[in-house]
């Protein structure tokens, strides 16, 4: 009786609290149903996609939890992170932040308007390009960015302890190759 129903419980992806993520379940269940009839490459492809979707869901959930804790929009937190890490004085060109997040100019303007009103950032003219604007973290914005990075440190420490540099390099190589093939 080793059919699809019995194999599903062995490949179910788990979310952060033990619940399977919805996208991860799709490929996991699909892999379980067709395990007997597909070749190994097909099974591994589906399992790989299930794991990638589970990781994506976890990252989205972590970001949503940080947003809920701080009361700010998830994108605001990403903007803070990009500016915080861009230079020592926590200033970046608006166009660079927009490009880094892959959002429209209108979306960037709305986020920055909200962040300025909340006291997280301030806009300033770019001294090197009079047509461009820069955005700088305020003390409040820098403090929030530091708090967010500190809370991520434990998770980063676990990741660093789990994988060697060589394993990270191999993983990156394989994921970049997968990304190229899926274009």
Unreliable stretches covering 5 or more consecutive residues: 1-19
As a whole number of angstroms, the C-alpha radius of gyration is 21 Å
Q: What would CATH call the class of the largest domain?
A: Mainly Alpha
- Describe the largest sheet: 3 strands, antiparallel
Q: Based on the structure, what is the oligomeric state of the protein chains?
A: single chain
Structural class of the helices, strands and pairings? mainly alpha
- The chain-level mean pLDDT equals 83
Please list the strands of the largest sheet in the order they lie side by side. 1-3-2
Count of the separate structural domains: 2
Named CATH topology of the largest domain:
Arc Repressor Mutant, subunit A
Helix-strand topology string: HHHHEHHEEHH
Strand content: 5-15%
Blueprint of the fold:
Elements: H1 4-11, H2 22-33, H3 40-70, H4 74-86, E1 91-93, H5 94-101, H6 105-117, E2 121-126, E3 129-137, H7 139-162, H8 165-182
Antiparallel strand pairs: 1-3, 2-3
């Amino acid at each position: 009786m080793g059919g699809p129903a019995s194999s599903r419980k062995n490949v179910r992806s788990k979310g952060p609290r033990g619940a399977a993520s919805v996208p991860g379940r799709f490929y996991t269940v699909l892999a379980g149903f067709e395990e007997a009839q597909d070749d190994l490459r097909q099974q591994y492809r589906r399992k790989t996609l299930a794991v990638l979707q589970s990781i994506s869901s976890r990252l989205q959930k972590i970001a949503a939890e940080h947003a809920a804790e701080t009361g700010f929009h998830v994108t605001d937190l990403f903007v803070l992170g990009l500016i915080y890490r861009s230079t020592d004085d926590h200033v970046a060109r608006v166009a660079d932040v927009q490009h880094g997040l892959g959002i429209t100019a209108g979306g960037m303007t709305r986020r920055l308007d909200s962040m300025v009103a909340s006291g997280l950032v301030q806009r300033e003219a770019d001294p090197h390009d009079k047509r461009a604007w820069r955005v700088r973290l305020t003390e409040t914005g820098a403090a929030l960015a530091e708090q967010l990075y500190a809370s991520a440190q434990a998770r980063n420490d676990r990741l660093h302890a789990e994988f060697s540099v060589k394993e990270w390099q191999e993983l990156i190589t394989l994921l970049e190759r997968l990304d190229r093939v899926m274009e």
